Amino acid sequence: MPPKPLEPLAKKLMKGLIALELLGVFGAYGLFYKMNNSQDFRNTMNKRLPSVLEVYYQSNEWAGVYGIREKDHAAWSAKQE
């Protein structure tokens, strides 16, 4: 039985979709890693994309890690003075 004409296209699209998903997962992990290790980067995220920083704080709180938000706000307000 000969292959259907759309079968190669479907395989290419599926490979592209998987590659795009992997890129998204690694990108999200990279963003989390950078925010987790750099208070200055979290300050930048607070200025540019506060909603993303809020998701970071909430995910840490759901995981049982508390106090990051408070430490950041204390450090940032001390820098402004």
Provide an overview of this structure.
By secondary structure, this protein is mostly helical. The protein has helices spanning about 5-35, 40-50, 50-60, 70-80. It is elongated. The mean pLDDT is about 95.
Give the H and E element order. Answer: HHHH
Let me know the average pLDDT: 93
Tally the helices: 4
Major beta sheet summary: none
CA-based gyration radius:
20 Å
Beta-strand share of residues = under 5%
Tell me the helix content. Answer: over 70%
* Number of DSSP E strands: 0
Architecture blueprint of SSEs:
Blueprint lengths: L6 H31 L1 H10 L1 H13 L5 H13 L1
Helix pairs in contact: 1-2, 2-3
Task: Record keyword descriptors for this entry.
mainly alpha, single chain, elongated, 81 residues
Quick take:
By secondary structure, the protein is an all-alpha fold. It is built from four helices and no strands.
